[in-house]
Amino acid sequence: MAERHDAVEVIRAKRDGGRLSDSQIDWVVDAYTRGLVAEEQMSALAMAILLRGMDRLEIVRWTSAMIASGERMDFSGLSRPTADKHSTGGVGDKITLPLAPLVAACGVAVPQLSGRGLGHTGGTLDKLEAIPGWRAELSNPELMAQLEDVGAVICAAGAGLAPADKKLYALRDVTGTVEAIPLIASSIMSKKIAEGTGALVLDVKVGSGAFMTSLEDARELARTMVDLGTDAGVRTTALLTDMGTPLGRCAGNGLEVAESVEVLAGGGPPDVVELTLALAGEMLAGAGVTGVDPAEKLADGSAMDTWRAMIAAQGGDPDAALPKARETEVLTAPRAGVLTRLDAMAVGLAGWRLGAGRARREDPVQPAAGVEWHARPGERVSAGQPLFTLHTDEPARFERALAALDGGWEIGDSHTPAPLVLDRII
Amino acid sequence: MAERHDAVEVIRAKRDGGRLSDSQIDWVVDAYTRGLVAEEQMSALAMAILLRGMDRLEIVRWTSAMIASGERMDFSGLSRPTADKHSTGGVGDKITLPLAPLVAACGVAVPQLSGRGLGHTGGTLDKLEAIPGWRAELSNPELMAQLEDVGAVICAAGAGLAPADKKLYALRDVTGTVEAIPLIASSIMSKKIAEGTGALVLDVKVGSGAFMTSLEDARELARTMVDLGTDAGVRTTALLTDMGTPLGRCAGNGLEVAESVEVLAGGGPPDVVELTLALAGEMLAGAGVTGVDPAEKLADGSAMDTWRAMIAAQGGDPDAALPKARETEVLTAPRAGVLTRLDAMAVGLAGWRLGAGRARREDPVQPAAGVEWHARPGERVSAGQPLFTLHTDEPARFERALAALDGGWEIGDSHTPAPLVLDRII
Question: pLDDT tens across A287-327, in order?
Fold first, then answer.
């Protein structure tokens, strides 16, 4: 039972640069969840946290209080260990789609509770909903049964996990308080810890198309989250990965499903394969599974078998044709040379403007809208060859999408791409 | 017509240490007043302003936007110049009561639009309401007529002046964002400039019983307000005055009226007389009135005549007996010596706990409750003589009032009181 506090007292303590006591944190998170601390009080506190920071123990306690606001799941009854992955969000980041069935094919259960996209990065659920029949909502018993039978689940996070976070996230979104590392870290980790996974790998994106544009900030966020997971008994590691360039060769819901299936069939863009295998390695190590090579599970078709079973278990038809956009527009290379730059933010914004993403939570997305790029940085192009194909159901969207791409790419004479995985935090 | 902006854009600009453009300020203040910017957005912005500050031009523009949210008054039709006073609030600060009729008796009209108290410092209207029959609410025509006929009005500020400030002040009160110098200064000055006074003196209190406890902060606040007034064409000066010790010999609504009448009768505590004359001098100089000695107007009874006319014009009976508390309790000196310390906050808190002040805006106050102190720092006391008399209608309040005084005073061997007026800002 939390001691009685007062919202203004807690706000002033953080505002003046102090640290919040355990009791203050427990009280304010609980009182906010129950509506006793008003939205305008929590937003002032969030701004104070953003500008004053929190130390490690404060973040740990804040995360615990958010977990305590809701239910916790328990996978200890499963016959195999569990591992999960979280990405901070990037353009063309479809890695969850091949990764979950791949890791399951290696003997680890993957309970991937996901969200929908907002802004220029797509949401995993939006992507899978491009598959005819597939449904995102599962009850807890359905989730458990599928984890045991198939080994992989990608579904919507239930409302019961960390309700304080849901409320706080919506508030931060409209009050300019999203970019606070203690709040980002506790938001992500409270849901992952409440979910009850045994191991977790974090893919923290860095670059123009990511939430964190500096390596320093990304490293601090990764460090904070790894510490939070470790303190809570979750075997947690993080990879810092480049998001200056978008992943793979397309961004858009149905387009990314198709590319993921290519990877599961043993092909696909090398960067998507590389990152999928790197993250799979972290998850297997975290789950204590050794002697299994995930690359083999891609090559021998067992990851694809798990994918098909996972899609079918949630009502999807893995053989159904993916939706096709009504209209396409092609942008060609003005000269021959080497693509020296492809900006993730420009591509993400173009896809968003074509209808692949949403501006408000209640907006629909177009399953077939998106951008394909036919060259990646370091690849040669000839004059007049297609550089981009834009897909949408509404041709009026082409103009603003093309404007987003303007200045987002360059053709030069030579280019050596930077590494994809920039650092590993344990 | 303000350009269209977005609340999150404005919040982020200030959060990241930037300055807000004129257009951003005009938009956000107007949109907040009209309910288009939500309370939780404004509280995040207020916290960002508190922690990041505002430069002089931002404060000027913010103040202008608050003035533009409501009506402006115009005293240019009066036959004499106008001058007003604002105090940042102190314990035992009844100066407005003798000051307004005194300055009016010197030929300057004083439109003193005042508020009620909250917390440990009393409100001017609460004090005057201890006088049987007196009413605080006047219409604008009544206010104008009384200024012309009597020369002095102390009444409630109408709802039409700076409504943005009223809304913002209530929000700051519950979100830990009161203590932001740009917001304090613009709150006070938007009302005073909208009121339309020609001259203004600010009494900025410093010390334990004041809002500002450091001289440095008080000086910054005074400087900011004087600049705002001057820029708006109001001849503005400020005195920094000590509020480590309470003013006069009593704190409490009816008690302070009685003490004010003593001053108007040519007597009263020397510190109250000193500060009244110092502030009157500033107001007369600001109004361009020379060759009048306010001390003479106290001595010859003309200030008292104006007081009686001012009270009578608002329905009060200047000859009526003031209310007496049902119960009193006396605290005596434990030993002989010199009073070396009398803490304003301790006295203010005691008076508040006796029923002289309110905890919430809707609470009533007791007109007769309060504290008298029978010695001021530097005065000799004998063992067993009364040090404090506590007044209340509810004897159950004595215990907590006495606890507030505990440690708030000291008897020693000798003491030279500090000066009352610490600095003058022009």
Answer: 999 999 999 999 999 999 999 999 999 999 999 999 999 99
Calculate mean pLDDT across residues A74-93.
Answer: 93
CATH number of the domain located at residue range(s) B327-412 in this protein: 3.90.1170.30
Q: Which residues of chain B have pLDDT under 70?
A: 1-3, 117-122
Residue with tokens 């000859």: B319
Which entry of B14, B85, B167, B191 is annotated as an active-site residue? B191
Give the model's pLDDT for residue A392. 97
Question: How high is the pLDDT of residue B5?
Answer: 87
The 3-class secondary structure across A92-111, one letter per residue, is CCCCHHHHHHHHHHCCCEEE
Which tokens sit at A310? 């996972």
Answer yes or no: is pLDDT of A118 > 90. Answer: no
What architecture is the B83-158+195-313 domain classified under in CATH?
A: 3-Layer(aba) Sandwich (3.40)
Q: Which of A5, A14, A61, A86 is catalytic?
A: A86
Using a CB-CB distance cutoff of 8 angstroms, which residues of chain B are in contact with residue A46? 44
Active-site residue, from A191, A308, A376, A391: A191
- Asked whether the predicted pLDDT for residue A410 surpasses 80, the reply is yes
The span from the CA of A38 to the CA of A246, in Å, is 40
Q: ipTM of this predicted complex?
A: 0.82
By C-alpha distance, which of B186, B229, B234, B204 is closest to B81? Answer: B234
Mean pLDDT of chain A: 93
CB-CB neighbours of A202 under 10 Å: 26
Looking at residue A296, its pLDDT comes to 97
- Minimal C-alpha gap between A41 and chain B (Å): 5
**C-alpha–C-alpha distance, residues A195 and A157, integer Å:** 9
Answer yes or no: are the C-beta atoms of A264 and A303 closer than 8 Å: yes
Site of tokens 């203040």: B29
- Closest-CA distance, A210 to chain B, in angstroms, reads 18
Alpha helices for A265-352 (secondary structure H):
270-286, 294-299, 302-313, 344-351
Q: Whole-angstrom Cα distance, residue A361 to residue A20?
A: 32
Contacts of B15 in chain A (CB under 8 A): 47, 50-51, 176-177
Q: Which residues of chain B are within 8 Å of residue A42 when distances are taken between CB atoms?
A: 40
Q: In the prediction, which pLDDT does B2 show?
A: 47
**Smallest Cα distance from B256 to chain A, Å:** 31
Q: How many CA atoms lie within 13 A of A424 on its CB side?
A: 10
Residues 6 or more apart whose Cβ sits within 8 Å of residue B46? A44, B168, B171, B172, B175, B177, B180, B183
Please report, for residues B188, B235, B246, the alpha-carbon distance to residue A123 in angstroms, rounded to integers and kept in the order given: 48, 60, 62
Find the helix or strand (DSSP H, E) in which A155 lies.
strand A152-156
DSSP 8-state code for residue A138? -
Give domain limits for chain B: 83-158+195-313, 327-412
- Determine the Cα–Cα distance for residues A151 and B168; give it in Å rounded to an integer: 54
Reference B256, options B323, B203, B346, B326; nearest CA is B323
Encode pLDDT of A219-257 as tens digits: 999 999 999 999 999 999 999 999 999 999 999 999 999
Residue B185, both tokens: 């200064």
